[in-house]
Write a structure and sequence with these properties.
2 domains; transaminase activity (chains A, B); 45% helix; Aspartate Aminotransferase, domain 1; Aspartate Aminotransferase, domain 2; alpha/beta; globular; homodimer
Amino acid sequence: MKREWDLLHTPGPTPIPPSVDRAMSQPIIGHRGQKCKDLLKELTPRLKPVFGSLENVQLLTGSGTSALEAAVVNTTAPGDKVIVVVAGAFGDRFAKLCQTYECNVHRIDVEWGKAVEVKEVEETLREHSDTKAVFVTHCETSTGVMHPVEDVAKSVHRLSQALVIVDGVSSIGGAEINMERSGIDLLVSGSQKAMMLPPGLAFAAIGERAWKVIEENDRPRFYLDLRTYDKKLTDGQTPFTPALSLMFGLEEVLNLIEEEGLEQVFERHQVMKQMTREACRALHLPLFVADEDASCTVTSIKPETFDPEKLRKIASEEFGLMLAGGQQHLKGQIFRIGHMGYTRPANVLQYISILEIVLKRLGHEFEAGAGTAAAQEAYLSVARELV
Amino acid sequence: MKREWDLLHTPGPTPIPPSVDRAMSQPIIGHRGQKCKDLLKELTPRLKPVFGSLENVQLLTGSGTSALEAAVVNTTAPGDKVIVVVAGAFGDRFAKLCQTYECNVHRIDVEWGKAVEVKEVEETLREHSDTKAVFVTHCETSTGVMHPVEDVAKSVHRLSQALVIVDGVSSIGGAEINMERSGIDLLVSGSQKAMMLPPGLAFAAIGERAWKVIEENDRPRFYLDLRTYDKKLTDGQTPFTPALSLMFGLEEVLNLIEEEGLEQVFERHQVMKQMTREACRALHLPLFVADEDASCTVTSIKPETFDPEKLRKIASEEFGLMLAGGQQHLKGQIFRIGHMGYTRPANVLQYISILEIVLKRLGHEFEAGAGTAAAQEAYLSVARELV
């Protein structure tokens, strides 16, 4: 099936709104000229509320992982003790980055599918009071868990001087987060998830305390040296040629977010989460994550009666509905639905209805239309509340 | 003036062909799905002739500098002796990268505006026979010099075991280069110059000898670890979410290059160089670089009778013609014209004709129409040859 017919519901990359696509098609401009300075000076402060940040948000040209690496190499030196919460592939990536860059890594390994408990972080921190930084994933894309990063941050700051560094790649722009309120020191993200852009742009929001550490840190770094990004930004520039077309698109993404209202954007993601989860329950599809730990941007299902890879294959071939499978030891065990960014309740109704057909083909038993009805009911109950 | 009217003739970023722009607007696909695997497996071998490479070309998501950094961190360890040819801002960047990553750097400082002489490299190499790598810039964008990198490579390999690592950011896709013929070991580039794409994608073509060094090198690296790119490529994947829209565009760029013919693409850049240089001579605009050292993608002019910044300002404000100024100590001393990528002799005729008006406004003396006539003559003399 041609990609024109695809219904992209992987947990990133995600579909691009047509107006963002048009914005990205604007003619290229010189990256040292006035037009680019004006654009960058407009964009970086407008990103602040999305990150709940008091400081400008820095733009890096790279995948989300480049921002994770920037967070590690700018704040740590070899031998520094760090705590990393690992409850999936992306927590694991943070830990691998810290190990690669020769930190003294203490992992808090949490069962995949569960969120970390704040008290676990507190206990580890008490054992390792000389910890320089605590790394946590906001939304663990590989499982669909949303870790309580704001509570973790508050707790860490009560107990220690450690920085709290958060991977917000698959949450920023979809889930509420507030660096100011919670004391998160460094929050990084990527363009290709709830930020409704193609991959290739990464973000770093850096609090005051983190800046102090970054300024004093003499670990060798160049392309991802956040000091040079900040220095250049005062002149409306980036140190290296930035992903200009994604910057053009970002301007329109911010227009869309501001028109809808940031609160409403977050609310929409909550509604899509509820609709998806209620539908799964009605369809006897076991949710991999408990309600209290579940992400509002991605939902994981662990079927017991059929192979999730078969479901993905039929959904893709018959309807162009692209879902994600499991990663690492969850390969072949779960499937994941992304519902973030340029996605509305109408899209949820569509993929639930498609899933019902696919489940019929797989011989999975459920009351006809039960998923759709449950999703509709979840939607209407919220809509009533909103009235 | 709105950017829709701009005539972008900086030496990168450069304009995007409409068909490439349309290709980039294709719907986003999952980066772990079959469609993306098919695309990557198609793209990387098709890049080989552009780099004159026997090996697949790796795609990185980042600015050109990310590829320079990848070249440094993958091939060197702290303390390694390296030679860096510095004859402008980008040679200087290679040297800074090597210094940042704690190499033992021997700079060959060449006067800005001149190309390195092969014998200088040979002499330095004789003095430092334990050199691990020689870093050279192909086109030094800041001056418009094209260094004889193929001759340097042959010479280095005659004298030593050192790797030859070349920055081809502003040459690849416009200037002929052949890794196989010359023995260049590692050749990196970016998307936003002669490759006719927006910034955000970077390339690394890696020869057999370089792979051996890279495999054995245990310097810590993660996002730019070329080993993981190669490993993932065997499965048609990149280690991290790639700049998908630029990959869609790259497919069409390769279509355009193949339709025109690679030889013809290189020839077109030579013609544009000759047209520009002959026009400058006729307009009494002093060329900053001698013919034998001059790049076919960018031409620098060092006016004696007027301020180049004034020329740039009028060209930009009155005609939307965007030219570049000088960098570092050449700021306010030179202006630079980019003629690469999606640029044809017709564009040269246009910017020369605009320059004539701007020069009139500046009170610069020249025979009316002399620049245009010289450019036309240069074009016709080649056209006659081609008949």
